[in-house]
Amino acid sequence: MNSSFEERFDIHIGSEEAQKGFIHQIYNELFEVVGRGTFGFNGPQDVDRLAATAVREHYRPGKRYYEYIDDDFLNCLRAIEKFWARVEDLAGHNSLADHRDRVNQIIINALHETGTSLSVTWENGYFLPQGAENLDRGLVNEPLRWLRRAGLDNIYKPFEKALLHYRESSEQPEKLRDVVTDMYEALEATAQMVNDNDKGLSTNAQKFIANLRLSNQHKVMLNAYVDYANKFARHAQKTKAKAVIEDAEAENFIYLTGIFIRFAIQKFEEQTQIES
After folding, report:
1. Stretch 205-213: mean pLDDT, rounded?
2. Distance of alpha carbon 205 from alpha carbon 110, whole angstroms
3. What is the pLDDT at residue 196?
4. Which of these ranges, 3-7, 128-132, 257-261, has the smallest mean pLDDT?
5. Does the pLDDT of residue 235 top 90, yes or no?
6. What is the pLDDT of residue 130?
7. What does the radius of gyration of the chain's CA atoms come to, in whole angstroms?
8. In 3-state terms, what secondary structure has residue 184?
9. In sequence order, which residues have a C-beta less than 8 Å from that of residue 235 and are 6 or more positions away?
10. CA-CA 20 to 30 A from 224: which of 3, 6, 105, 167?
């Protein structure tokens, strides 16, 4: 039977509850298995160390993986990706392909059995945000992969955080303002990288567009982007009546950020090709 328990009995699961259910299923069926010496790991300390690395904490012997993850959904996703990378490495050295397939299926099953969408998909060892497929692929997923490979955490982290806030906004609409603020921070860091300075986005906008070799129309778009973020999110708390951000506008802001970051990625890839 392919349907989950919740689907079969028409039980509604809220996103927070679904996330916790996913996390605990991963604890029980994936990470605890490591403690029994499966998959070629050297005991429970291996997964504890991976979890510490995933959440960027110093590993301390005796502190368990669930203490590092702390029932945080994004931390759990990061730990799974680290776990998968280790399994992939082991599979390439000691014929653990069957175990790799088993790990992959455990992750897929955990996503499916939540009974509701967690707004992420599991593809080739990475979790990706789920949305408008064609737009997400070009303006969200591909930039995220590139930023992660390049180690640009000052851009990647706020981008990823904005996507989490967007997922949570279905039940907490006030988080749509955080989506705009986080995306603005990601693009501001992108402009600083391209312009090689630490100036704010409003100051950097003209030089940013020039360095990307974009038309003046894009400068108009970027100025409007800055104005929108300041009015509806970044400086909104200074006004008595807070401006309302609609879901569609927040989603559009995500994609608009992705457009400019994609332009920046293209510029750096062109430079790399020239230098090579």
Report:
1. 93
2. 43
3. 93
4. 3-7
5. no
6. 66
7. 21
8. helix
9. none
10. 167
Distance CA 74, CA 61 (A): 23
224 confidence band (pLDDT: 50, 70, 90): very high
C-alpha 42/C-alpha 200 separation (Å) is 47
Residues 6+ apart with CB under 8 A from 122: 104, 107, 108, 111, 128
Q: How do strand 120-123 and strand 126-129 relate by DSSP bridges?
A: antiparallel
Residue for token pair 């995220």: 144
Summarize the confidence of residues 59-75 as an average pLDDT: 93
Instruction: State residue 198's pLDDT score.
Output: 95
Nearest to 110 by CA among 170, 197, 27, 168: 27
Give one DSSP letter per residue of 56-122, joined into a string: T----TT--HHHHHTT-HHHHHHHHHHHHHHHHHHHHHH--HHHHHHHHHHHHHHHHTTSS--SEEE
**Look-up of token digits 């930023």:** 147
For residues 138 and 61, is the Cβ–Cβ distance under 8 A?
no
Average pLDDT, the chain: 82
All residues at 6 or more sequence positions from 261 whose CB lies less than 8 Å from its CB, including other chains: 143, 147, 155, 159, 186, 187, 190
| Euclidean distance between CA atoms 93 and 110, whole angstroms | 27
Residues 6+ apart with CB under 8 A from 57: 68
Q: 8 pLDDT exceeds 50?
A: no
**Burial of 5 per CB tally in 10 Å (0-12, 13-18, 19+):** exposed
Predicted TM-score of the model (pTM): 0.57
